[in-house]
Design goal:
Elements (H helix, E strand, L loop, with lengths): L11 H22 L4 E11 L3 E2 L2 E2 L1 E4 L9 E9 L8 H8 L5 E4 H4 L6 H27 L7 E4 L10 H11 L14 E4 L2 E2 L5 E2 L4 H10 L4 E5 L3 H6 L6 E5 L2 H11 L10
Parallel strand pairs: 5-8, 8-11, 11-12
Antiparallel strand pairs: 1-5, 1-6, 2-3, 4-7, 9-10
Length: about 270
C-alpha cells in the first residue's frame, strides 16, 4: 500500500539519525539474547573444619596429641553458575540490583579454556596445594615436623585455594600443647577466608561480600578477612558479623586470642 514519507524524515541528516537509532535498537536486542562471558555468583556452603563434612572428619591428625575443641572454624565459599552456562544481559541486570548475587567475569571465577572436567581438575589441584601449604604453615607455627606428625584434610565437593587460612587455624586448634596455647574459638562460631602460604602469609581470594553473607547465615559472629579485602567485605556486611582483618597466620591467631580477652587489641577494618 502506498504511503507518504513524513516531512521530518525527508532530510538526509534525519534519515541518518533514524538509521543509527535502528542499529542501536538492533544491537541492544542482540546483546540481550547473546551469551556473555560472565558467571553469576551467590553465597555458597560453609563447613566447620573442626568437625565433619558429609560424615568424614575434615582434619585428621596422627603422631601427636589432639584435643577436643569447642566452637567452630567455618571455611566459606561462593556458588557460581557452571562455566558452560549461558548468561544473558537480563541475568546480569538482575544480579546488579541484588545484594545476594553478583555478576563476575567468567575468567575471574574459572580458569580460561578447558572443559568443565578440566576446570574441576584444576580447582581440585589448587585445593590440594592449599591443604599442603596449610599443613606446612600450621606445623611450622607449632614447631612440629611433618616427619612425626601426619595431617589429612578432606573436604568434599569444594575446590580452589581460599580455605587455606581456615584449614591452618583448624590444625593449630586441634593439636594439644606444643605452643598452641589453648582453644582458639572460645566456643564461638568463627568464619573466614584467605589463601595461605607455607610461610604463613594470608592472601586475597575474591567474593568476600558474598562469603560474609554465607557465614552469618550459618551462625558465625566473627569473620577473618584478608586485610586488602576489607572494603569489599564491608560493602554488604550482615548485621551481627564482626570483621577481623588479617595478613598472617600469627596475626590471625593473635586476633583470636584478643577476642577471648587474652590480651592485645583486636584489629578492625
Amino acid at each position: 500500500m502506498p504511503f507518504s514519507v513524513p516531512a521530518a524524515l525527508r532530510s538526509p541528516r534525519t534519515r541518518t539519525l533514524a538509521v543509527c537509532a535502528a542499529l542501536v535498537v538492533a544491537l541492544l536486542a542482540v546483546a540481550a539474547l547473546a551469551p556473555l562471558p560472565v558467571s553469576i555468583v551467590e553465597p555458597g556452603l560453609t563447613a566447620d573444619v573442626l568437625g565433619a563434612n558429609k560424615g568424614t572428619q575434615v582434619i585428621t591428625i596422627t603422631g601427636t596429641k589432639v584435643r577436643k575443641t569447642s566452637g567452630q572454624l567455618r571455611m566459606t565459599t561462593i556458588a557460581a553458575t557452571q562455566p558452560d552456562a549461558d548468561i544473558h544481559l537480563n541475568d546480569v541486570l538482575d544480579a546488579w540490583f541484588a545484594t545476594d548475587r553478583a555478576a563476575m567475569p567468567r575468567d575471574a571465577v574459572y580458569p580460561t579454556g578447558g572443559t568443565v572436567k578440566e576446570i574441576e581438575k584444576h580447582n581440585q589441584a589448587e585445593m590440594t596445594q592449599s591443604q599442603d601449604a596449610a599443613t606446612a604453615a600450621a606445623l611450622k607455627h607449632l614447631g612440629l615436623s611433618s616427619s612425626d606428625v601426619r595431617v589429612s584434610l578432606h573436604l568434599a565437593d569444594v575446590g580452589g585455594p581460599s580455605a587455606g587460612l581456615m584449614f591452618t587455624l583448624g590444625i593449630v586448634d586441634k593439636i594439644d600443647g606444643n605452643g598452641s596455647g589453648g582453644d582458639l574459638t572460645a566456643g564461638r562460631r568463627i568464619a573466614g577466608t584467605g589463601t595461605i602460604t607455607a610461610a604463613g602469609a594470608v592472601g586475597a581470594v575474591g567474593g568476600v561480600s558474598l562469603k560474609t553473607q554465607a557465614a552469618r547465615r550459618d551462625g558465625a559472629t566473627v569473620f577473618l578477612v584478608p586485610k586488602d579485602e576489607c572494603a569489599d567485605a564491608e560493602a554488604e556486611l550482615p548485621a551481627g558479623l564482626r570483621l577481623v582483618p588479617v595478613t598472617t597466620l600469627d596475626g590471625a591467631i593473635s586476633a583470636l586470642r584478643a577476642l577471648d580477652g587474652s590480651g592485645g587489641k583486636v584489629p578492625s577494618c
